[in-house]
Specification:
Helix content is 31%, strand content 14%. It is α/β, with parallel strands linked by helices.
C-alpha cells in the first residue's frame, strides 16, 4: 500500500479570495487517472491541509478536484486537532483512520507532496518520500519557509504539481512505486 499526502491548498488562495483559484486541466486529468487506478495500484490519495475543512472542501470544489478528493479523502486541521502538520501525531491520526483493519500503514509507504520546506523536512524525518512544489518563483516565498531544492529532505523538486505524473510516473504504475523518470 502506498499513500500520497497532497497539500491541495498549496499557496492557491489568499484571504479566501476564491477568484484567484484557477482550474488546471492537466492536474485534474492526472489526479483523476491516479484515483481511478488507485484500487488496482494499491494506492490511496488524500488531501491534507492545515486549513479548516470547510475551506479545504471549497478550494477543491473551485479547482475542479472534488471528484478526485471526496470528503472522506480530505483531512483538515479539524480532523487532526490538537495536532497539525508537520507534527508526527497529525500524520499518525490520518494513517490510523485510513488503514485497513489490522494492517497499519507505515510512514515509509507514504509520499508527501508539499510546498512547505518545514513540512517536507518533517515528512522526510518520518521516513516518507517527498515531492517539493516550488511554484514558478522561489523568491516569492517567505524567507522562513522558502523552498530549498538542495535540501536533502527533498526527493523530487517540481515547479508545478501537474508535473508529478511525468516526473514520478511510478505512482501511476501497478503496483505504485516511487520511481522517477529517467
Amino acid at each position: 500500500m502506498m499513500i500520497i499526502f497532497l497539500d491541495i491548498c498549496i499557496r492557491f488562495a489568499t484571504k479566501c479570495d476564491f477568484s484567484l483559484l484557477e482550474k488546471d486541466a492537466q492536474l485534474i486529468e492526472s489526479l483523476t487517472k491516479l484515483k481511478l487506478d488507485s484500487d488496482k495500484n494499491d494506492l490511496k490519495v488524500v488531501a491534507f491541509s492545515n486549513g479548516p475543512r470547510k475551506y479545504v472542501l471549497k478550494v477543491l470544489d473551485v479547482l475542479g478536484l472534488s471528484d478526485v478528493f471526496p470528503s472522506e479523502c480530505v483531512y483538515a486541521i479539524d480532523d487532526t486537532l490538537p495536532y497539525c502538520k508537520p507534527e508526527k501525531e497529525a500524520f499518525q491520526k490520518i494513517l490510523s483512520n485510513i488503514s485497513d483493519e489490522g494492517d497499519a500503514i507505515q510512514f515509509e509507504e507514504c509520499v508527501m507532496v508539499e510546498d512547505s520546506m518545514k513540512n517536507v523536512q518533517a515528512a522526510k524525518s518520518l521516513g516518507m518520500k517527498t515531492i517539493l512544489i516550488t511554484g514558478s518563483n522561489i523568491e516569492s516565498h517567505h524567507d522562513i519557509d522558502r523552498p530549498d531544492v538542495n535540501d536533502p529532505a527533498v526527493d523530487v523538486c517540481l515547479s508545478n504539481a501537474n508535473q508529478i505524473q511525468s516526473d514520478v510516473p511510478g505512482l501511476w504504475e501497478c503496483p505504485a512505486t516511487f520511481r522517477r523518470s529517467a
